[in-house]
Design brief:
Elements lengths: L14 H27 L9 H8 L9 H13 L6 H12 L3 E6 L4 E10 L5 H11 L5 E7 L3 H4 L4 H4 L4 H6 L4
Parallel strand pairs: 2-3
Antiparallel strand pairs: 1-2
InterPro entries: Phage_Mu_Gp48
Pfam families: Phage_Mu_Gp48
Protein name: YmfQ family protein
Length: about 180
């Protein structure tokens, strides 16, 4: 908004008044940007520089080498991890870290559960972070195993050799083929 438009016409003849109003407009705009940015820090999904406070609040170690998404997922896992650990909680935490669907299978007789990748192919880059988060929320007497999904002959048979030629053997096994 142009502040000069709100003042009487006589003020437009004063260079000092015009400069003052332009300065106030600039300060007001900067203030709006800062207020919006501060508001973003109040929500985990949009926090950036305020993520340190979220991590401190939930007892998560701050690792600035990790992306915002990884750090948010760690806080989310800690938030969800308060209270009773359920299959739904483990599933939710796993999916928030990995960004895909998993299935959790209990093996009560041997005090173990499996986290089975449903839509994620290969080993996700942040699987170690997930392991740490699961260790923090699971009951101490339980163990767990993560079962990874790989492409097999059934997944690849619909492609021709020409379509698969650009990929290396490992990529065929561990990547989604497009």
């Amino acid at each position: 908004m142009k502040l000069m438009e709100l003042l009487p016409q006589d003020y437009t003849r004063s260079p000092a008044m015009v400069e003052l109003q332009e300065t106030l407009e600039w300060v007001g705009t900067e203030l709006e940007v800062d207020i919006d940015d501060l508001g973003n820090q109040l929500y985990l999904d949009t926090a950036t520089w305020g993520l340190k406070e979220w991590e401190k609040m939930f007892g998560v170690n701050t690792d600035l080498t990790k992306s915002y998404e990884f750090r948010r997922a760690a806080v989310r896992a800690k938030m969800m991890g308060t209270g009773t650990t359920t299959v739904a909680l483990i599933k939710s935490v796993s999916e928030s870290f990995l960004g895909g669907q998993v299935r959790v299978v209990e093996q009560n007789g041997i005090y173990k559960f499996l986290i089975i990748m449903e839509t994620i192919i290969g080993i996700p880059p942040n699987v170690e972070d997930l392991k740490k988060a699961i260790e923090e929320i699971k009951p101490a007497h339980l163990t767990f195993e993560i079962i990874f999904k790989y492409n097999n002959h059934t997944d690849l048979h619909r492609y021709t050799h020409g379509q698969l030629r650009p990929y290396r053997h490992r990529e065929l096994k561990e990547r989604e083929i497009v």
